[in-house]
Amino acid sequence: MIKKSAIMVGWLAVCAAALSPFVGLQPIPQQDSLDEWQRPDRIEALSQADKKRVLERLAYTEPAIAFKPLPDFNAINDTTAKKRAFFDYLRPHVQRENNRLRYLRQQLLELAEKKRKNQRLNINEYAFLYSLYDEFRMDVAETDPQMLEELLKRVDILPPSLVLMQAANESAWGTSRFAVEGFNFFGQWCFREGCGLVPLNRGEDQSHEVAKFDSPAKSIRSYFYNLNTFHTYESLREIRAKLRAERKPVRGEALAAGLGRYSERGEEYITEISSMIRFNRRFLED
């Protein structure tokens, strides 16, 4: 009996060791991690227990990144050190957004598979699905395979190389006035008076401002939202969906081809971002 117990304990230890690399890979939803605009209105009619389950489905899978003031990148004279410092400052926020998108997408694929098999979704699954439709700017009265396919085109990651190189390009490596005064690393505009910083060279017939954020996290979150929802970047999402269908990696240089409308420079802008990704490849990770 003692011998059998010892064998069993030894076998369990082996199993635990084999599984240990995977422990902790399961996402742990962070309650109250969503911004107000990400919190769905549709779940208010649910019970408190059901509401909690839906919010856990929608939540970020790791704690918020501790706020750090923007470093003085102008004071870093060594180019390599400046690049590393810039990427190190923004990369955790990029990873957090992508980890949530992976978590959402995994759940969405499971629901799509259930629908494909004509299996019924429960109330929490429906509430989660329609919350995603709302967050990713889709006006859907009744879900169908086409709507699910479009949602999957939006609920997906953005390669760190693309995000970081656009941030470097648009913010002059974190030294622009808009980055320093408003954590705006992507040149994002807003159109309500007082919503941001007025460009010094803004034309008299123009009314836009450059959006001002109170943290790098919110700047990056807004950028992700723009690329994953606005019709302007539909071609980028089509490129990403095609890569998924072909089971190819989603790389920054490939998605850069969908940025033709991000800048008035069009193809020239695409070439510039692509070249920056290639030139800085050793600092980047996708």
Give a brief outline of the structure.
The chain is mainly alpha-helical and 286 residues long. The protein is 53% helix and 2% strand. The longest helix has 38 residues, at 79-116.
- Number of helices, where a helix is a run of at least 4 consecutive DSSP H or I residues: 11
Note poorly predicted spans.
1-25
Strand content: under 5%
Bulk shape: globular
Widest beta sheet: strand line-up: 1-3-2
DSSP helix fraction:
40-55%
**Sheet with the most strands, sense and barrel status:** 3 strands, antiparallel
Q: Strand pairing plus helix content: what structural class?
A: mainly alpha
Mean pLDDT: 87
Our measurement of the CA-to-CA distance between the termini, rounded to an integer number of angstroms, reads: 53 Å
Order of helices and strands: HHHHHHHEEEHHHH
Q: Over the alpha carbons, how many angstroms does the gyration radius reach?
A: 22 Å
Number of extended strands: 3
Tell me about this structure.
With 286 residues, the protein is mostly helical. Helix content is 53%, strand content 2%. The protein is built from 11 helices and 3 strands. The longest helix has 38 residues, at 79-116.
